Amino acid sequence: MNILKRKEMNTIKNTKAVSDTSNRRAPMSPLRKTSLLAGILYLLTFVSIPTLALYRSIREPNFIISSVSNNNVIFGGLLEIVVALAGIGTAIVLYPVLKKQNEAAALGLVASRVLEAATIFTGVAFLLSVVTLHQYEAGAEALVSSHTLVALYNRIFLLGQSFIPAINDLLLGFLLYKSRLVPRGLALIGIVGAAPLIAGYLAMMFGYIGQQSPLAGLAALLVAVFEFSLGIYLVIKGFRPSAITSRK
């Protein structure tokens, strides 16, 4: 009887050990952590979309002499700062992987992202300067200054968030296409999408279309689709097995 009981106890213990082992999740690989973090950061670069509405008041000609709240503009500035930092983060997180494909292009992506962030920070500083004038009740004498600062924001926005993103996506699309870390069709969207974005930028520079026109938004559509889709793909799927992921 004792022998039978011991056998039963051992069987129960073995069954429990197997169950516990099967319930444990396999540890996440460093490569999967990289893709997950990069995907989250890419999705964070879309948090500034509400600024289209949040900055509406500061674009009004008489904002500086109005009694409207500054909170929307300040909140919009904070969202843009998040985007700038997330943009730098995407390039830094992906760099150790992408450099295995082409180190110069991967480094160029980091530099381009940093330059883009610098223009965003500068643009936010222009708008917050208008907010400061408004808080200190600078009055009608500051109308020209406020209009100039808003115009400077609009101009640097074109450079930092229209032209430079096209360079970013050309570099990233090329690296992803060559490395096959994601489906090549997805990488091609980034490469192809850069052309209409640059065309739209030039059209706005020469005054053929307005910065807030539907055509300006259409020019940026493919780049937006690429970056958002890439973020979703990296979060859900991660990198595809490829030649560079097997390198140490």
Give a quick set of tags describing it.
single chain; about 250 residues; mainly alpha; about 75% helix; elongated
How would you characterize the overall build of this protein?
By secondary structure, the protein is mainly α. 74% of the residues lie in helices and 0% in strands. It is built from nine helices and no strands. It has helices at 2-23, 30-44, 51-54, 71-98, 103-135, 143-179, 184-205, 214-219, 221-236. Helix 2 (30-44) packs antiparallel against helix 4 and helix 7 (184-205) runs antiparallel to helix 9. The chain is elongated, with a radius of gyration of 25 Å. The relative contact order is 0.12. The model is unreliable at 17-22 (pLDDT under 50).
Give a brief rundown of this model.
The protein has 248 residues and is mainly alpha-helical. 74% of the residues lie in helices and 0% in strands.
Summarize the helices and strands and which ones pair or pack.
Elements (H helix, E strand, L loop, with lengths): L1 H22 L6 H15 L6 H4 L16 H28 L4 H33 L7 H37 L4 H22 L8 H6 L1 H16 L12
Helix pairs in contact: 2-4, 2-9, 4-5, 5-6, 6-7, 7-9
Radius of gyration: 25 Å
> Are there runs of 5+ residues with pLDDT below 50, and where?
17-22
The number of strands is 0
State the secondary-structure class.
Answer: mainly alpha
- In terms of quaternary structure, the protein is single chain
